[in-house]
């Protein structure tokens, strides 16, 4: 009889949840000097990556509640980082764009994200980091 059974393996969902919590904690630490919270930085990163977005597109792409997005955009707008303007092709929608100050801060957020990535994957070799990123991206795409 085997006295040392193999340890139970955590589900992928649980492992991903803990990976997310660790990454979020590291990103929070990197953002602290910028006076930003993760969700504020996430909106800036989304707009920076995808350029002009409607509020609805941001809600959908980030998977957040509509009212939470409105509060986040209100806070970013109050800091002069984004502005809502008439959408050029959809009269019913508001486009959310970065202001010049938002573009400057975005560069700092992107640097913080890079530092977070490096810290979060410091346990990997460079090849493993690349593979991990590629596999995670493939997983997200389905």
Q: What would the keywords be for this entry?
A:
elongated, Arc Repressor Mutant, subunit A, 142 residues, three-stranded antiparallel β-sheet
Question: How would you portray this structure in words?
Answer:
- The radius of gyration is 19 Å and the shape is elongated.
- The chain is 64% helix and 8% strand.
- It has helices at 12-31, 38-50, 55-62, 66-78, 100-120, 126-141; strands at residues 53-54, 82-86, 94-98.
- Helix 1 (12-31) crosses helix 5 (100-120) and helix 2 (38-50) packs across helix 5 (100-120).
- It has one domain: Arc Repressor Mutant, subunit A, CATH 1.10.10.
- The protein is mainly α and 142 residues long.
- The protein has six helices and three strands, in the order ααβααββαα.
- The chain has a three-stranded antiparallel β-sheet.
Topology:
Elements: H1 12-31, H2 38-50, E1 53-54, H3 55-62, H4 66-78, E2 82-86, E3 94-98, H5 100-120, H6 126-141
Antiparallel strand pairs: 1-3, 2-3
Helix pairs in contact: 1-5, 2-5
């Amino acid at each position: 009889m085997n006295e040392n059974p193999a340890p139970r393996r955590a589900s992928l969902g649980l492992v991903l949840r803990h990976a997310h919590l660790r990454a979020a904690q590291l990103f929070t630490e990197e953002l602290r000097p910028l006076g930003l919270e993760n969700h504020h930085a996430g909106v800036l990163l989304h707009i920076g990556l995808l350029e002009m977005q409607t509020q609805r597109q941001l809600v959908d792409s980030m998977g957040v509640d509509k009212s939470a997005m409105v509060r986040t955009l209100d806070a970013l707008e109050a800091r002069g980082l984004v502005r809502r303007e008439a959408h050029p092709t959809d009269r019913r929608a508001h486009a959310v764009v970065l202001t010049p100050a938002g573009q400057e801060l975005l560069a700092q957020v992107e640097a913080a994200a890079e530092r977070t990535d490096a810290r979060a994957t410091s346990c990997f070799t460079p090849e493993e980091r690349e593979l991990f990123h590629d596999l995670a991206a493939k997983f997200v795409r389905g």
